[in-house]
């Protein structure tokens, strides 16, 4: 049982680590600010989820797990919010996203 | 410290050095402030690696929240870019290099990192740890030393914070007076109310931040934390509120008078505990006499003065924030 | 290990001097304050470093903890951090007033205005 | 009143008087001047009441405070100081009388300040006179400089301020740079600065050090106006004449020579100096000053400046007399302090009276003035004769003793100097007298003037009388001076 | 308000893990104070959440998690592929019919999913930046919006 | 009952009054409360001073913890003397400065100002009584932050830039000090000064100790405005509100110097070989240069307050010179000069405050004729000025006397030093006399013709308390010039203590 | 077992730092800071377990909650600046 948990958490942690790395690389590689934000959100959401889940498995049923859960919840609430706030700031300052083609109005009503 | 954590910490410190160099190099102050945020995180992580959880917590509460907000507040009212180039960089570099060499020269005789025979570890530390167990009986030795063994220093620290508050209020005026009393709440210049996501999320999180602040306050004796960190966290939550809803609304929640009362009340609470020790026949800040059981007395004393610290710090930090923010509004 | 153990102190020296350089060489007042707070952070790092005990843990008595790093430097630095942020806040308030009074936060421009 | 109380009272009274004068100045000029006269008279009475005691050989002593370990603020009355104090306090009465006439006659500004500071200056002069040790002496010496400074700068115009600056700079810098180190040296060498008959340095300091220290003292005590530190004295002549008269002919300059005398007699000790063969230095310096100052005086156009240079020369008489280190010369020095005071104050009074009545300050303007102001010019003549040393004036007595002293010391330099300077004195003073009485006024005067206001005339008459009187009634002074003789 | 109080109390108890009377008292005090402060802040003017909503939210999170995993793999492959095949798009989603709070949930869900990023939420319109065209199409299908809308539905 | 607690109360009284003061709204109340607290502190300081006469030392364990573990307070003669200076300066400045401050400060900010005043006072006395290296740092920061506030209070905008410079340099100084005590702590493991002195022996020759000594000295030298680290001082003093300047000029730099001397003599010199020599070797030239340059600049300065500020630089040089002789008599002179200079400089700046109540400014030409309009104030000014020069009969003379005698113990070098002292005394005569001349003889300044000043001949605003206080100070200058048993005894005992362990 | 994730976090931090130093726009830097914050949370959480002191999670909690205030301040900063520049606010895409 213990071994199973260990393996599971090991897998989660490693995957999380890989995720973080990929996100980090993405942040470096991506061509413009908005695309970089996507890479960052890779680490913020997936990376965080995996890592914390991994640690939670290790902690077992304890207060620490609850705390980790709270941490995860807060992270998942705050990081998109922060990302949004950042995007808004960039837009506010007049920074245009680089897009392949013109802005697509995908909404049906808007198209009409 | 095992070698591997040592390597971690070395890695972090290297990042820290790069960050600081970048901070000094950049001509854009906004960028510098952002990099300061990173530096603060790195420092906090290093503190944590070096077993200083309390300090890391403080750095977290201050560096990540308050400090950035204050710097940005100042930047908003001044300018973002440094205008003139550095003067005499060669001379300055020369001086700096010499002092750096002197400091490095000093390091070669220092006791190596973590050596148990170093005087710091051998002289006072065992006594503190033993006495905390015996005389105060709380788990967090840092809190015991901070609040009791060196409670006088901490009183001084509170006074420093209070002084800064008084100073900023003196220099900038109170937020209330600047935003012309009686003026209606202007809806269009009220923080981030028009940004839906931040606003709603903020609304969701503020109670938890507040609670966390109180939690840190009252668990200072058991885990990292204490009055100062708590005060900073509570202040951060109020600052968050005023960023979201506008400074004037925040002033409605905690009016200027209350803030002032907090600044004053905390210091006075601390002082009163000290004087109580004196009146009850002990020395100043001697908590043992507060209760028939000296250990209990110590615990009461620590609890009370930590509350005093928390109140003052929160009051001061919020006041400072308002003072900055109201300058922008004026 | 010995050299690695000294690394922290070297970083301390470098940080100290980086901050100091900003204070000395940069004419921008806010930059000076930034330098100042870096400068102070370096000192914090130094204190915390020599409070560290090999194999120790944070001085919070709990289960499974036997060796503790020294609490005293941490206490000192807690105080010093507070002092640092207080100084920074006061400095920034001053910068705001200076900006209002002089319309600039560059040291050389202010000096020019002060010269009769 | 016990002697000790009298000593303290004589110090406190002028200060109290100054305070009263300041208050009275707010009420009316008459009350103020009454207060001045009252203070002056009171002071004279107290000081003179001490004279019989001192003559009888008593030496009242008061110690006020121990300022530094071994260094006290203390007073002691000894003959020389008694003489000096008595002289100054007596002349203050006369001078006050004269001041009233002069100040009113010239419509000077800030008269209250003038009287207040005058009183303070007198107080410090008494302090100098009664000082029991070097420290106390130095203290009052400096206080005297500072309290007279505003008097010199009284007019407040560019010229007087500049001159006052010279006055202050010379006096203060000499005292700080030379006098103070000399005092410290003395204290360090001798362990004491008490004025002790026979000196305190004997056996403590030998060789070249003695000479060096002596020079430090002589040039450090700038008030004695030994060349080249005499510069302040002509500069001080911008002051109102009563100041020049009492302070710069009597109190201040005499404080200087008095200090030198005390240092020589009580600090070095005559015997010690004789043993060290250094007094000749002093004689030479004094001789040089006498001759040089007299020659400079010869070339002066301005009456008061001429008198100032004459003062420089006359002061060096005293210094030289002291330096001769013979009993007779010592008596001569003491007598000369008195005689010169009477004579010079008369001359200044006269000069001031001329200025008040006729607005004349230059020599060539004085043609025929004797006929318009006969009383004044008579007094002037008497004063001038006293300067030269012609009987029946006081100057003759003192010169006589000095000459005798020089002879006793077998000092040819001194003898020759005195003779030469007498000739020079005559050369610059007699033409004035001649001009005043016998020359014809060639310019037409729009306004015929008479004598100065009566208080001024009364005062200068009195001093002229004293000058003459000293020729006859000098025995008291000599008696006091003789008490010094054990020192020789 | 009671919901919040309950959550806070639970949070305190789990965080603290110490049940001495003093600390419990302090906890009660803290929770009360927090609620008081939040009340002063005017955050009880509008009802945000009902317990039922929260329950459904948990279910939604499960779906979202899978969504995030899927998107993560996509983005990771984009990042790791040497050509860096990005084709950024900005699309606008109309969510006027949703409650404000649901707009926020939608916006944050979009942001949380790697590859899509809510730029701005205003007047019921969400401006979304996507990393690739595929991401844009997936969003346009409106699966996420439907699920969010159903959180509040009957 | 209170007697054993006095060292603590000395700090606690102003400390706890400061928060109260912030709350006092009606005009004048804040002032009254601050003054009361300050006077109480003064009274405590007097009692303390009287009780340590004769080499007694009072100690106090804060919180009841014993010395190396808890924080200890220690009042010895040196500290007591400094306490007298600090609390006395504060009380006198507050008493005399009410009206002057009322003019300088907007009413809404008054409570903050007076609170900051008490905080500064707390900081200074906190340093003076502390026996713990880190505690000194904390209170140093309290005093510094509060001083920044006090200085920035003036209406002159140049105060702001001056304060900023002060803030930067002051913080750098404090941080240097922190680095220094950090290194010492690292090598000895203690922060208590006495314990430190005991444990330093073992590590005396290690490199960190040497560097620590350097850092501590430089840091404190910055705070003490020792030449050439004085550049923050002139402007900070010149543009601060006058009363602030009077207070700070009397004690701020001296407190730093106090710490410096205590550290150097009690801890470093006794144990670091050759430290005494290095101390003298580095500091004596600086002291001499400071004396000469400070006086020299003062001679040509036209702004009255800047002039006095530069004179302060020179006076700090005197104190340092005395200390750098490393002898009982030298230290004695230096410590005595701290006391005497505070008397003189405090009085001078207070007099400037009085002048400024009726003149339009304090450039030399602007105080023209002030001697006629305010003769009594002016007279007090002159007395303090004479004390600054060191004219006999005033307090300033005594310290110079001791300094010269101390220097003369050093043979040829001593004579050279004496020359410097005498030369600078002459320079002091020159600059003091420039002020006096301007006040007496310059034509009445005509404010209407001067563009950048406002006519200000407003006698109603001139408080009668100020001249009284000024005269008290001036008389103190005279009194301590003649009967100086108390400061002398304290200074002597302090010097003995400092040099106690040296051969 | 935690070491892998710690190393990964550290490397990611380094990469983020590189982005922060390089820029090019200020927003990139803010982004980096934000990323850094999350990474610190993860790092500290892992470290707490490495040290075997899970009670230090409080600290992590604080970070998780406080960190984003800075970003809000940035937003407010730009909003403020935009308002000052006289631009229409809030920003709307064309």
List the helices and strands and how they pair.
The complex is a heteroheptamer.
Chain A: H1 2-29, H2 33-59, H3 63-92, H4 108-111
Helix pairs in contact in A: 1-2, 2-3
Chain D: H1 3-27, H2 29-55, E1 61-68, E2 71-76, H3 79-106, H4 111-130, H5 134-152, H6 158-190, H7 208-220, H8 232-235, H9 241-268, H10 270-276, H11 279-298, H12 303-324, H13 327-358, H14 369-372, H15 374-388, H16 394-409, H17 412-438, H18 454-472, H19 475-482
Helix pairs in contact in D: 1-2, 1-4, 2-3, 2-4, 3-4, 3-9, 3-13, 3-18, 4-5, 4-9, 5-6, 5-9, 6-7, 7-9, 9-10, 9-12, 9-13, 11-12, 11-17, 12-13, 12-17, 13-15, 13-16, 13-18, 13-19, 15-17, 15-18, 16-17, 16-18
Chain G: H1 2-22, H2 26-50, H3 57-84
Helix pairs in contact in G: 1-2, 2-3
Question: What would you say this structure looks like, in words?
Answer:
The structure holds seven protein chains of seven kinds. With 112 residues, chain A is mainly alpha-helical. Chain A contains four helices and no strands. Chain A starts with a helix and ends with a helix. Mean pLDDT of chain A is 79; it is low at 101-112. Chain E has two domains: 2-40; 51-152, no CATH class. In chain E, helix 3 packs antiparallel against helix 6. The two termini of chain E are 23 Å apart. Chain G has 94 residues and is mainly α. The termini of chain G are far apart. Residues 87-94 of chain G have low confidence and may be disordered. Classes of the chains: A mainly alpha (112), B mainly alpha (330), C mainly alpha (116), D mainly alpha (488), E alpha+beta (154), F mainly alpha (503), G mainly alpha (94). At the B-C interface, helix 1, helix 2, helix 3, helix 4 and helix 6 of B face helix 1, helix 2 and helix 3 of C.
Shape of chain F: globular
Helicity level of chain F: over 70%
- Count of domain modules of chain F: 1
Overall shape of chain B: globular
Radius of gyration of chain F, taken over Cα atoms and rounded to an integer in Å: 21 Å
Order of helices and strands of chain B: HHHHHHHHHHHHHH
Spatially, the strands of the biggest sheet of chain F line up as: 1-2
Mean pLDDT over the residues of chain B: 84
Number of helices of chain F: 19
Distance between the termini of chain B: 53 Å
Annotation, overall tally of beta strands of chain B: 0
Describe, in short, the structure shown:
Chain B is mainly α and 330 residues long. Chain B is 75% helix and 0% strand. In chain B, helix 7 crosses helix 14 (294-329) and helix 8 packs parallel to helix 14 (294-329).
């Amino acid at each position: 049982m213990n071994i199973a948990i260990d393996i599971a958490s090991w897998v989660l942690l490693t995957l999380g680590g890989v995720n973080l790395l990929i996100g980090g690389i993405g942040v470096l590689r991506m061509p413009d600010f908005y695309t970089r934000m996507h890479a960052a959100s890779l680490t913020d959401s997936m990376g965080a989820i995996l890592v914390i889940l991994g640690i939670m498995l290790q902690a077992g049923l304890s207060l620490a797990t609850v705390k980790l859960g709270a941490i995860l919840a807060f992270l998942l609430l705050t990081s998109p919010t922060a990302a949004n706030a950042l995007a808004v700031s960039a837009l506010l300052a007049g920074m245009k996203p680089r897009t392949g083609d013109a802005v697509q109005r995908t909404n049906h009503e808007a198209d009409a | 410290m095992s070698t591997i954590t040592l390597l971690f910490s070395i890695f972090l410190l290297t990042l820290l050095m790069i960050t600081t160099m970048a901070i000094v190099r950049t001509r854009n102050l906004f960028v510098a402030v952002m990099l300061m945020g990173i530096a603060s995180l790195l420092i906090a992580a290093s503190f944590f690696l070096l077993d200083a959880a309390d300090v890391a917590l403080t750095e977290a509460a201050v560096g990540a929240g308050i400090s950035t907000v204050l710097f940005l507040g100042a930047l908003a009212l001044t300018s973002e870019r440094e205008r003139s180039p550095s003067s005499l960089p060669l001379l300055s570099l020369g001086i700096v290099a010499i002092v750096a060499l002197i400091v490095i020269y000093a390091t070669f005789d220092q006791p190596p990192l973590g050596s148990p025979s170093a005087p710091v570890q051998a002289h006072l530390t065992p006594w503190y740890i033993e006495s905390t167990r015996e005389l105060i009986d709380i788990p967090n030795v840092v809190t015991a030393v901070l609040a009791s063994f060196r409670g006088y220093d901490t009183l001084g620290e509170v006074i420093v914070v209070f002084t800064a508050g008084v100073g900023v209020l003196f220099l900038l005026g109170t937020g209330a007076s600047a935003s012309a009393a009686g003026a209606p709440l202007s809806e269009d210049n009220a923080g981030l109310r028009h940004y839906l996501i931040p606003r709603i999320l903020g609304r969701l999180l503020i109670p938890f931040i507040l609670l966390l602040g109180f939690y840190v306050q009252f668990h200072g004796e058991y885990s990292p934390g204490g009055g100062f960190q708590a005060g900073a966290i509570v202040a951060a939550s109020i600052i968050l509120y005023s960023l979201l809803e506008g400074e004037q609304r925040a002033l409605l929640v905690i009016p200027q008078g209350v803030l002032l009362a907090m600044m004053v009340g905390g210091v006075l609470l601390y002082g009163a505990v000290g004087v109580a020790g004196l009146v009850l026949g002990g020395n100043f800040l001697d908590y043992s006499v507060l209760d028939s059981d000296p250990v209990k007395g110590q615990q009461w004393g620590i609890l009370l003065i930590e509350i005093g610290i928390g109140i003052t710090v929160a009051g001061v930090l919020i006041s400072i924030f308002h003072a900055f923010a109201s300058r922008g509004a004026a | 290990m010995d050299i690695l153990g000294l690394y922290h102190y070297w970083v301390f020296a470098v940080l100290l001097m980086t901050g100091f350089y900003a204070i000395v060489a940069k004419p921008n007042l806010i930059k000076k304050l930034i330098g100042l707070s870096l400068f102070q952070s370096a000192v914090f790092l130094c204190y915390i470093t020599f409070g560290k005990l090999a194999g120790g843990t944070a001085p919070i008595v709990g289960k499974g903890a036997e060796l503790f790093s020294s609490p005293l430097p941490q206490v000192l630095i807690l105080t010093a951090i507070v002092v640092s942020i207080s100084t920074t806040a006061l400095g920034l308030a001053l910068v705001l007033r200076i900006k209002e009074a002089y319309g600039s936060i560059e040291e050389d421009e202010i000096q020019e205005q002060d010269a009769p | 009143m016990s002697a000790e109380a009298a000593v303290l009272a004589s110090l406190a009274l002028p200060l109290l008087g100054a305070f009263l004068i300041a208050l009275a100045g707010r009420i009316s000029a008459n009350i103020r001047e009454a207060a001045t006269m009252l203070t002056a008279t009171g002071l004279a009475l107290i000081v003179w009441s001490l004279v019989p005691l001192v003559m009888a050989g008593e030496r009242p002593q008061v110690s006020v405070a121990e300022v530094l370990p071994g260094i006290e603020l203390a007073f002691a009355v000894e003959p020389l100081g008694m003489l000096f104090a008595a002289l100054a306090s007596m002349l203050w009465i006369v001078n006050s009388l004269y001041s009233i006439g002069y100040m009113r006659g010239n419509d000077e500004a800030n008269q209250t300040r003038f009287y207040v500071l005058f009183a303070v200056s007198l107080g410090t002069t008494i302090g100098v006179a009664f000082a029991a040790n070097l420290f106390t002496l130095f203290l009052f010496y400096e206080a005297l400089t500072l309290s007279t400074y505003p008097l010199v700068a009284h007019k407040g115009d560019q010229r007087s301020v500049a001159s006052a600056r010279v006055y202050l700079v010379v006096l203060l810098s000499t005292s700080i740079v030379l006098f103070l180190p000399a005092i410290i040296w003395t204290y360090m060498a001798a362990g004491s600065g008490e004025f002790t008959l026979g000196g305190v340095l004997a056996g403590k300091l030998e060789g070249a050090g003695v000479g060096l220290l002596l020079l430090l003292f002589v040039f450090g005590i700038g008030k004695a106006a030994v060349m080249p530190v005499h510069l302040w004295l002509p500069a001080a002549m911008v002051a109102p004449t009563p100041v020049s008269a009492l302070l710069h002919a009597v109190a201040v300059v005499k404080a200087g020579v008095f200090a030198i005398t005390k240092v020589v007699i009580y600090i070095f000790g005559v015997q010690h100096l004789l043993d060290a063969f250094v007094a000749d230095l002093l004689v030479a310096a004094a001789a040089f000053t006498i001759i040089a100052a007299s020659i400079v005086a010869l070339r002066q156009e301005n009456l008061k400046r001429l008198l100032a240079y004459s003062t420089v020369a006359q002061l060096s008489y005293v210094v030289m007399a002291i330096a001769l280190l013979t009993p007779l010369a010592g008596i001569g020095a003491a007598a000369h302090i008195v005689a010169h005071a009477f004579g010079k104050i008369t001359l200044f009074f006269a000069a001031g009276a001329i200025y008040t009545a006729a607005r004349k300050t230059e020599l060539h303007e004085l043609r025929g003035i004797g006929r318009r102001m006969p009383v004044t010019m008579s007094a002037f003549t008497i004063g001038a004769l006293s300067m030269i040393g012609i009987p029946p004036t006081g100057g003759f007595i003192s010169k006589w003793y000095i000459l005798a002293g020089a002879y006793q010391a077998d000092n040819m330099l001194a003898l020759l100097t005195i003779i030469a300077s007498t000739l020079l004195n005559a050369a610059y003073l007699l033409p004035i007298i001649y001009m005043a009485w016998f020359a014809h006024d060639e310019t037409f005067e729009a306004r015929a003037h008479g004598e100065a206001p009566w208080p001024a005339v009364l005062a200068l008459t009195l001093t002229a009388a004293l000058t003459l009187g000293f020729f006859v009634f000098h025995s008291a002074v000599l008696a006091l001076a003789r008490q010094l003789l054990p020192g020789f | 308000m009671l919901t919040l109080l309950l959550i806070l109390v639970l949070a305190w108890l789990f965080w603290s893990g110490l049940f001495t009377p003093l600390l419990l008292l302090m906890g009660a005090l803290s929770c009360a104070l927090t609620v008081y402060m939040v009340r002063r802040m005017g955050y009880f003017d509008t009802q945000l959440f009902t317990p039922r909503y929260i329950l459904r939210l948990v279910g939604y999170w499960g779906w979202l998690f899978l969504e995030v995993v899927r998107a993560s793999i996509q983005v990771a492959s984009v990042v790791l592929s040497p050509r860096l095949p990005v084709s950024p798009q900005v699309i606008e989603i109309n969510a006027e019919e949703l409650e404000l709070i649901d707009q926020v949930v939608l916006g944050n869900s979009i942001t949380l999913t790697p590859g899509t990023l809510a730029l701005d939420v205003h007047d019921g319109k969400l401006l979304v930046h996507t990393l690739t065209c595929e991401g844009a199409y997936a969003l346009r299908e409106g699966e996420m919006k439907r699920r969010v809308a159903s959180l509040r539905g009957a | 009952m209170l007697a054993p607690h006095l060292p603590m109360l000395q700090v606690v009284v102003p400390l706890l009054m400061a928060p109260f003061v912030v709350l006092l709204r009606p005009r004048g109340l804040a002032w009254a409360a601050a003054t009361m607290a300050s006077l109480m502190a003064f009274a405590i300081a007097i009692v303390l001073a009287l009780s340590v006469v004769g080499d007694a030392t009072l100690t106090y364990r804060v919180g009841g913890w014993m010395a190396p573990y808890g924080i200890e307070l220690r009042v010895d003669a040196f500290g007591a003397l400094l306490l007298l200076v600090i609390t006395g300066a504060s009380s006198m400045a507050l008493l005399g400065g009410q009206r002057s401050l009322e003019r300088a400060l907007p009413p809404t900010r008054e409570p903050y100002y007076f609170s900051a005043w008490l905080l500064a006072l707390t900081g200074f006395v906190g340093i003076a009584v502390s026996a713990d290296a880190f505690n000194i740092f904390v209170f140093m920061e309290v005093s510094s932050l509060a001083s920044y506030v006090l200085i920035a209070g003036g209406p002159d905008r140049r105060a702001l830039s001056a304060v900023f410079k002060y803030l930067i340099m002051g913080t750098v100084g404090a941080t240097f000090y922190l680095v220094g005590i950090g290194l010492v702590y690292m090598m000895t493991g203690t922060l208590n000064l006495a314990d430190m002195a005991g444990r330093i022996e073992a590590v005396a020759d290690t490199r960190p100790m040497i560097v620590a000594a350097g850092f501590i000295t430089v840091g404190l030298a910055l705070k003490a405005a020792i030449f050439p680290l004085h550049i923050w001082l002139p402007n900070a003093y010149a543009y601060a509100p006058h009363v602030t300047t009077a207070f700070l000029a009397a004690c701020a730099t001296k407190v730093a110097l106090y710490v410096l001397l205590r550290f150097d003599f009690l801890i470093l010199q006794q144990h670091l070989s050759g430290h005494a020599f290095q101390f003298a070797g580095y500091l004596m030239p600086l002291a001499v240069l400071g004396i000469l340059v400070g006086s020299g600049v003062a001679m040509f300065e036209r702004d009255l307050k800047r002039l006095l500020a530069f004179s302060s630089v020179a006076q700090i040089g005197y104190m340092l010179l005395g200390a750098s002789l490393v002898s009982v008599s030298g230290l004695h002179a230096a410590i005595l000069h701290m006391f005497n200079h505070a008397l003189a400089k405090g009085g001078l700046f207070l007099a400037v405050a009085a002048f400024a109540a009726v003149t339009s400014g304090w450039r030399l030409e602007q105080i023209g004729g002030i001697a006629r309009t305010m003769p009594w104030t002016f007279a007090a000014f002159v007395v303090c000025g004479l004390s600054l020069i060191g004219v006999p009969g005033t307090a300033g003379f005594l310290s110079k006397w001791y300094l010269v005698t101390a220097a003369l113990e050093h043979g040829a070098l001593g004579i050279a030093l004496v020359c410097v002292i005498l030369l600078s005394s002459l320079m002091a005569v020159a600059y003091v006399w420039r002020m006096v001349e301007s006040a007496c003889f310059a034509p009445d300044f005509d404010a209407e013709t001067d563009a950048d000043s406002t006519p200000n001949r407003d006698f109603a605003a001139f408080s009668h308390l100020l001249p009284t206080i000024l005269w008290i100070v001036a008389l103190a200058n005279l009194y301590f010039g003649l009967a100086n048993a108390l400061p002398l005894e304290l200074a002597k005992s302090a010097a003995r203590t400092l040099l106690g362990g040296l051969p | 077992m935690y070491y892998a994730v710690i190393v990964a976090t550290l490397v990611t931090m380094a990469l983020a730092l590189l982005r922060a130093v390089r820029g090019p726009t200020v927003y990139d830097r803010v982004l980096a800071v934000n990323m850094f914050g999350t990474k610190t949370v993860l790092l500290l959480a892992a470290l707490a377990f490495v040290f075997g002191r899970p009670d230090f999670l409080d600290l992590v909690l604080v970070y998780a909650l406080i960190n984003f205030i800075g970003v809000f301040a940035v937003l407010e900063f730009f909003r403020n600046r935009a308002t000052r520049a006289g631009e229409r606010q809030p920003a709307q895409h064309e």
